[in-house]
Amino acid sequence: MTLSPSADLTIGGLRARLSGVPVLHGVDLRAEPGEVLGVVGPNGAGKSTLLRCLYRALAPESGTVLVGGKDLLAMDPATSARHTAALPQEAEPVSGLRVRRVVVLGRTAHLGPWQTPGAQDHWIAEEALARVGASALADRDIATLSGGERQRVLLARALAQQPRVLVLDEPLNHLDIRHQLDALLMVRGLGITTVLAVHDLGLALRYCDRLCVLADGAVVASGPPRQVLQPALMAEVFGVRARQVEISPGEQALWCEPLEPAPGPAPTGPDPAASLDASEEEPAC
Ligand SMILES: Nc1ncnc2c1ncn2[C@@H]1O[C@H](COP(=O)(O)OP(=O)(O)OP(=O)(O)O)[C@@H](O)[C@H]1O
């Protein structure tokens, strides 16, 4: 791995197991300050497992995670929460709490043991809600929100945490296309180092500064999105034929189709084509 003294996040040799099964096999990764780093890969590649190590939901078996040069894995929970904040893929269920209160909870990492949030904490929470376009939801019970609304509120909570590194696991889940684009542009505009697991490779191509491709728990490629999402890699890792298409000067879109037809149920009964009499006329259309 190339060591970058300026990197905000440096992951070295990260190995993790789930239920005793090795899932990450020595992941090396870095993100520069303010960079949006997309983590992509097929289902089961280990993206969520990697991200869970970054927000301390999972203790890796070995390896290092440095945030701003400091050892994240050695930090106490509050210190760690000031360094990384997360939007987990399966956001924990919360009910009976108003949205405003949920977002203020993001300030906990900045408060003393018995300290209650002050005016500045509430102001930061309101600003975070505004950033994700969810101010109108502030007085709602979080349990009553739609999936996309809830996703935006939990993103606001992560922003209110004011971390050095933001860890977002599939933040676009449940969001309609407009809110997906708003969320990506908002994240890019924050200037916070962000690690983003994302399935939509077209959006990853356009909105991430760099991509890391995971397959079977190992990094198989990383670099600028246009260099990474090349046909050979797309075929080998994702099983698709892909091509980058210039849609306007400097703007690429990704076109994909399966390398071979998707597996379907085996045909049953007589072959309809075989029953056609060769002399039968084609129906007129
Ligand atoms: N509790 C568990 N015990 C054993 N293996 C697990 C457990 N949880 C997940 N796995 C396996 O670990 C691997 C990585 O899972 P992970 O959720 O990190 O993948 P992912 O890349 O985020 O997938 P997806 O794109 O489907 O969300 C998968 O093969 C998954 O089946």
From TrEMBL:
Residues annotated as transmembrane: none
Gene Ontology molecular function terms on file: ATP binding
Region (Disordered): 256-285
CDD domains attached to this UniProt entry: ABC_Iron-Siderophores_B12_Hemin
Protein name per its UniProtKB record: ABC transporter ATP-binding protein
Ranges of biased composition (kind: Pro residues): 260-270
ABC transporter domain sequence ranges: 9-241
Stored PROSITE patterns: ABC_TRANSPORTER_1, ABC_TRANSPORTER_2
Organism: Streptomyces thermocoprophilus
SMART domains: AAA (SM00382)
Keywords from the UniProt entry: ATP-binding, Nucleotide-binding
